[in-house]
Design a protein that fits this description.
- By secondary structure, the protein is of the alpha/beta class.
- It folds into 2 domains: 147 residues, no CATH class; 117 residues, no CATH class.
- The chain is 45% helix and 14% strand.
- The protein contains 10 helices and 7 strands.
- The strands form 2 sheets. Strands 1-4-3-2-5 form a 5-stranded mixed beta sheet, sandwiched between helices. It has a two-stranded antiparallel sheet with strand order 6-7.
- β2 and β3 form a beta hairpin.
- The radius of gyration is 26 Å and the shape is elongated.
- It comes from Brevundimonas intermedia.
- This is Conserved hypothetical protein CHP02391 domain-containing protein.
- Pfam families: Hypoth_Ymh.
């Protein structure tokens, strides 16, 4: 497939380009990061030329994004492994995939961020590779990932800023530099906040149980739900904060999940009111 001549068809396509040509992990990460966004990828064109592969993605809003040629096939190595993983992730997200054979120069123009309107027009009428072979690029172990949900393990861990309590915003910005210290500081801030609001001079689980028994609570709530929320504070400190204080800092793949649990406690604390200020707190619903 060659570029179409001058005029409108020779103008730049004006689409987005992601990834670095020849760098498999970078191109894989580019797709995974796009899958983390709110604009779903609906259609995937796998562009193949002499064992080298690029991607042209279309989102639910008809935006087009080209992923440069970090993928390959026909041998064992990083390129085929990245291709297998990216197809696995796209299948898991419900994308429709088709493969199209193109000329090596077409791949080169993607790598140079230089596709033209003529290139896109030519691709829109290009025949799919038949019989379909793109499924063969997915390694057997990655096929199982789709069925069993293991594909989630290769998705990047990202901080969901939009759901954070504002008091953890500054900590979230430095989280990846030192997750252990950020968590310890966060637990300390939560304790200080509850002590200040309740007037109690206690610590840890004992502080939370007493504070949410006699000083703080939530509006219009069954007693069991109120007690469950109070125990969530106490149990989080016993299950996560206390062990963290007594072990050396190190790599912790579960640190982000723990930070989000801590964030949920801050959100619950923000909803709590002083019991004396709200006669409905703690009463059973009829």
């Amino acid at each position: 497939m060659s570029s179409v001549g001058p005029g409108r068809l020779g103008r730049p396509a004006g689409i987005a380009y992601h990834g670095v040509a020849g760098v498999s992990q970078d191109c894989l990460d580019a797709v995974l990061n796009l899958l983390m966004g709110r604009s779903a990828i609906r259609q995937v064109r796998l562009l193949s030329a002499a064992g080298s592969h690029a991607l042209l993605l279309s989102t639910e809003f008809d935006d087009m994004i080209a992923i440069k040629s970090g993928f390959s096939s026909g041998y064992s190595g990083e390129g085929p492994n990245a291709l297998s993983k990216v197809l696995c992730a796209l299948v898991a997200h419900g994308a429709t995939i088709s493969e199209h054979a193109v000329e090596p120069t077409y791949i080169s123009r993607i790598d140079d961020s230089a596709l033209t309107l003529g290139d896109l027009d030519a691709l829109s009428v290009a025949q799919e590779v038949r019989p379909a072979r793109w499924q063969d690029y997915i390694q057997e172990r990655h096929h199982r990932w789709v069925v069993e949900g293991h594909w989630v393990a290769m998705m990047p861990q990202v901080m969901p800023f939009a759901i954070l309590d504002r008091r953890l915003a500054a900590s979230a910005l430095k989280f990846w530099a030192n997750p252990d210290q950020v968590l310890i500081d966060g637990y300390r801030l939560l304790e200080d906040t509850i002590r200040r609001r309740s007037g109690l001079d206690q610590h840890g689980a004992k502080l939370f149980r007493e504070a949410f028994k006699s000083r703080l609570g939530w509006r219009v709530m069954h007693e069991a739900e109120r007690g469950g929320r109070a125990e969530l504070f106490a149990n989080t400190f016993m299950a996560f904060r206390n062990p963290r204080m007594h072990r050396p800092a190190g790599t912790d793949p579960g640190a982000l999940a723990e930070f989000l649990l801590l964030n949920q406690l801050f959100r619950l604390e923000a909803e709590a009111v002083e019991i004396a200020a709200d006669a409905g707190v703690g009463q059973r619903n009829n």
